[in-house]
Amino acid sequence: MPSAEPAGAAAITVTGVEHAYGDVVALGPIDLTVPTGEFLVLVGASGCGKSTLLRLIAGFERPTTGTVLTDGGSPVPGRGAGLVFQQPRLFPWKTVGGNIELALRYAGQPADGVDRLLTRVGLPGVANRRTWQISGGQQQRVAIARALAADRPLLLLDEPFAALDALTRERLQEDLRTVSTTTGRTSVFVTHSVDEAVFLGSRVVVLSPRPGRIVLDLPIDLPRTDITPNDLRGLPEYAALRAEIGHAVRNEGASA
Ligand SMILES: Nc1ncnc2c1ncn2[C@@H]1O[C@H](COP(=O)(O)OP(=O)(O)OP(=O)(O)O)[C@@H](O)[C@H]1O
Ligand SMILES: [Mg+2]
Which domain holds residue 14? Predict the structure, then answer.
């Protein structure tokens, strides 16, 4: 039971965090606790500070005020979190397998895990291809495999599917949902899409326009196993959650 765990057991603790770039207050104040194993989705208007919050959790930036703790300590860039960005950012001079091997080696793990990771993201048998010999959607799968390679406790994803066509996006959403359920990895996923948020999240947080503050914090109590994506999307609870989150996003957007 999460409530019985000591406070230190949270994967991420954000306390009284504000962040400013010079005179521009981008975010906060924010208080947020993410228990281990949660799939948290952040939704909000462009410029409300979603990427800023993700960068604070990754340790790329320190908050102007307040504290961010991951696994009970200050986040160290490249240590505690695997990252996936909007663009795959693979090394073009390496093969697909070479890209993942590099991540494994950097994490001090045996390089023979490449095929297992590619299979996990639905790409068995492409290890010897060049990154430019696979599609954009496949490249993004490789980026996810690379982020999983390091076996970090956290997975941080910043609009990873935004540049993909609708069909590829749906496939990747389905695969990521399965991967997250089977690995139980604590994840923070940023998106503009309310449907993506409800589909993927075990919890959705909506931020207000800049400076981003939490305006809605909703558990997504939908089945994560033994249900097809179509059946999931067809549930009345699914529609109700979409409506509630959409309403919060639109209301906040309108007041910007
Ligand atoms: N390095 C920076 N220097 C100055 N201002 C910045 C910097 N990074 C972000 N900002 C500003 O801080 C605010 C929040 O930016 P952030 O990138 O976190 O928003 P976002 O919610 O991720 O937006 P989007 O949905 O468009 O990606 C914006 O107003 C942005 O212009
Ligand atoms: Mg962003």
Answer: 1-80+185-256
Note the pLDDT of residue 121. 83
Q: What is the pTM for the complete model shown?
A: 0.89
In a domain, 154, yes or no: no
* Residue from 203, 197, 201, 212 nearest 253 by CA: 212
Buried/exposed code over 118-139 (b: 16+ C-beta within 10 A; e: otherwise): bebbbbeebbeeebeebeebbb
Q: List, for residues 112-143, the tens digit of each pLDDT value.
A: 889 988 988 888 889 999 999 998 889 988 99
Assign residue 73 the CATH number of its domain: 3.40.50.300
CB of 222 within 8 A of CB of 237? Answer: yes
* Cα 55 to middle of ligand 2, angstroms: 10
Ligand 1 atom 14, closest CA: 49
Residue 205 lies in a domain: yes
For the Cβ of 19 lying below 6 angstroms from any atom of ligand 1, the answer is no
The residue contributing the CA closest to ligand 1 atom 26 is: 46
**Least trusted range by pLDDT, from 40-49, 70-79, 94-103, 204-213:** 70-79
